[in-house]
Design goal:
The protein is an alpha+beta fold. It has one domain: 3-Layer(aba) Sandwich (Trna Endonuclease, Chain: A, domain 1), CATH 3.40.1350. Helix content is 37%, strand content 34%. The longest helix is centred in the N-terminal third of the chain and has 22 residues.
């Protein structure tokens, strides 16, 4: 996927998150936002899968630990959803780990438990992150 495609889909993802947050508001369970976001992607014709299993592979050996990505968009972009009062370093390590384990280039850590959704979106690229400017 080229950079322009990443940017286009990234903007769509953010718009979907804004739409779900506007419709549902903060304070619900993470699973509620996941289901609503999946429906929003479907309505917009965006390919997305939820609860995608990621195996842990070390030196070619699959170890007995699996991880689950909340949502994988267009087989390229990882979304880790939260409904938390704060974003901990554990959540950041989680999205970074998923990016490394899957060799994906772009991921979003999205916290729906915020009054203003733009403050709940963090973008991660190539092992670093920055807060999105919307």
């Amino acid at each position: 996927m080229e950079r322009e495609e990443f940017e286009k889909i990234g903007k769509e993802i953010i718009d979907c998150c804004l739409t779900v947050h506007k419709e549902m508001g903060p304070g619900l369970l993470e699973s509620v936002y996941e289901m609503c976001l999946m429906k929003e992607f479907e309505l917009r014709g965006i390919k997305a899968k939820s609860q995608v299993v990621v195996p842990l592979v070390y030196k070619g050996y699959e170890l007995s630990k699996d991880f689950k990505i909340d949502i994988l968009v267009e087989d390229e972009i990882i979304l880790e959803l939260k409904a938390s009062e704060t974003i901990s370093s554990t959540y950041i390590a989680q999205i970074i780990s998923y990016l490394k384990l899957t060799d994906k280039r772009l991921g979003f850590l999205i916290n729906f438990n915020v009054p203003l959704m733009k403050n709940g979106i963090q973008r991660f690229v190539n092992n670093y992150y920055k807060t999105m400017s919307i």
